[in-house]
Amino acid sequence: MDKIATKRLSYEHQGRKIYEWEQTLEEIHVFIEVPPGVKAKMLDIKIDAKRLRVGLRGNPPFIDVRAATRVQKSLMLERFQAENPGFDFSGASFNGQVPDPKSFMGGVGYNTPN
């Protein structure tokens, strides 16, 4: 890589690091941490100009960041609606990163036993 300092970023799925990457304007380096016993031929990896997909052959991919973000948004709006039944959140939107609705501000109150 060129001499510009880069920060390694990571993507996690259900608390487990799936991959890390660092990039410059010219290059991207991807580091995949596979579970014990997984061999290279068992991986299903697709890289194109706009997306990266990582998974195990025969299984759905771990990574579709845009789909994961859409799911997070949907779950967060569902949580807001359940916690505030008198309000309509159907037209609400989020700016930036959406928090995990299961742990945001103490977790989901309606899923914990009394």
TrEMBL record:
Cellular component, GO annotation: cytoplasm
GO biological process: protein folding
Example GO molecular function: unfolded protein binding
Residues covered by the CS domain: 19-63
PANTHER family: NUCLEAR MOVEMENT PROTEIN NUDC (PTHR12356), NUDC DOMAIN-CONTAINING PROTEIN 2 (PTHR12356:SF18)
Protein name: Nudc domain-containing protein 2
